[in-house]
Amino acid sequence: MTEQTQWLQTQIEKLAEEQGKFTDRAFWLALEALVGEQARRHDQLSGEVDGRTWRPDRW
C-alpha cells in the first residue's frame, strides 16, 4: 500500500468518525473499503506485470 493510499484511508476514517448519521458513516466506511480494494488490485496487477516480464513463455 502506498503512502498516498494510507493517507487517504486515514482521512476517510476521520471523516467517518465525525458523522452523526448512520448512513453518512456507512458511506465513508464503504469508500474506505473501496480504496483498500483498489490498492490490493493495483499491487496484484503490478506483480502480474513483473511476472510476465520475467517469463517469456507468457508473452
Characteristic terms for this protein:
59 residues; mainly alpha; elongated
Largest sheet report: none
Mean pLDDT: 89
- Please tell me how large the radius of gyration is: 17 Å
In whole angstroms, how far apart are the ends? 27 Å
Give the total of beta strands. Answer: 0
Question: Total helix count?
Answer: 2
- Regarding quaternary structure, what we see is single chain
What report would you give on this structure?
This protein has helices spanning 3-18, 22-53. It has 59 residues and is mainly alpha-helical. Helix 1 runs antiparallel to helix 2 (22-53). The radius of gyration is 17 Å and the shape is elongated.
Short description:
The protein contains 2 helices and no strands. The chain is mainly α and 59 residues long.
Secondary structure topology:
Elements (H helix, E strand, L loop, with lengths): L2 H16 L3 H32 L6
